[in-house]
Amino acid sequence: MAIETEFTPLASAFGGALIGISAVLLLYSNGRIAGISGMVKRLIAPAADGRPEQALAFIIGLIATPFVWTAVTGSAVAQTVSENIPLAAIAGLLVGFGAAFGGGCTSGHGVCGLSRFSKRSLVATIVFMAAAALTVFVSRHIVGGGA
């Protein structure tokens, strides 16, 4: 069964602009790159010169955002999550391994790294976008039995 998604250029552009603005504000105010894996790492194993409360505030903001959206707009955030718990656990471990092995995650490399013209981030972004495209193709056309 294929999952239909709605193309929303205005909402997507607005959301992208908000992500970009928040990344700039974090870099400007704290000198930190807005990578989710880095924030989680700072929260779990704070550096001697770090401030884990900043990472905690960032992560709380990520978790609270859908609730704030629902309260402001009156409509719930629509998202699809797999019911296959073992598959989701394996996927989570692979993403964690990839973020650790690649020295960052999609937000750190794709948003902040590319905007700083980092060659390493360009390679990382190409790799995770190719992996995402392959995953969608396999799940929709090979494992899922067709789109």
Brief account:
The protein is an all-alpha fold. It has helices at residues 9-30, 36-44, 52-73, 85-101, 106-115, 119-143. Helix 2 crosses helix 3 and helix 5 (106-115) packs across helix 6.
Beta fraction of the residues?
Answer: under 5%
What is the 3D shape? globular
Largest sheet geometry: none
User: What radius of gyration results from the CA coordinates?
Assistant: 17 Å
How would you classify the helix and strand content by structural class?
mainly alpha
State the low-pLDDT regions, or none. Answer: none
Distance between the termini: 7 Å
Mean of all residue-level pLDDT scores:
82
Order of helices and strands: HHHHHH
Tally of DSSP β-strands? 0
Helical region count? 6
What does this structure look like?
The chain has 147 residues and is an all-alpha fold. The protein has one domain (9-143). 71% of the residues lie in helices and 0% in strands. It has six helices and no strands. The chain has helices at 9-30, 36-44, 52-73, 85-101, 106-115, 119-143. α2 crosses α3 and α5 (106-115) crosses α6 (119-143). The longest helix has 25 residues, at 119-143. It is globular and about 50 Å long. The termini are close together. The model has no long low-confidence stretch (mean pLDDT 82).
